[in-house]
Amino acid sequence: MPDPVDPTQPPPPPPPFTDPAAPTKSTTTGLPSNIAAALACIPLIGGIIFYILEKQDNFVRFYAMQSIIFGGAWFLFNVVSAVIHAIFASVPAVGPFLSVLWGLVAMLVHLAFLVIWIVATVKAFTNARWDIPYVGPLARKQIGES
Question: Is it the case that residue 105 has pLDDT exceeding 90?
Fold first, then answer.
């Protein structure tokens, strides 16, 4: 019976080690994908810059488009909030009360925006694709993913 291990043959070399958690290089910007996606999470500005610069990495493009939509929603809330605040402040007698009440509501909404932004940035930095509720599906549709 022949020996299954031939002592005259050297063992094959082991395959090169590749870390599956290692970030891949973003092809257009030269940054690792997770760093570029985390920077793209800066609302509106970061999203616009990385959406224009990055042409091939869909991970970065997704976070950039999500940042553009999210930043636009945040900016729109600021504009509407300022108008509502001005209207409430001009109401006679109860205006100061309504103005303070709206200020508290706006503060809570801004806090929610800030928490969502931080979570999205951390998820992008850890190479996890995370959809912001309502914004993520819109971003996927805009970049051509389903």
Answer: yes
In whole angstroms, give the CA distance from residue 113 to residue 80: 15
How far is the C-alpha of 11 from the C-alpha of 96, rounded, in Å?
82
Those residues with Cβ within 8 angstroms of residue 43's Cβ, 6 or more apart along the chain or in another chain? 67, 70, 71, 74, 117
Report the C-alpha gap between 26 and 62 in whole angstroms: 13
At residue 18, the pLDDT reads 56
User: What pLDDT digit, counting tens, does each position of 19-40 carry?
Assistant: 555 566 766 888 999 999 999 9
Handedness of CA 135, 142, 119, 107 (dihedral sign): negative
- Cα gap 48→50, rounded to integer Å: 6
Q: Where are the chain's structural domains?
A: 33-143
Contact between 143 and 40 (Cβ < 8 Å)? no
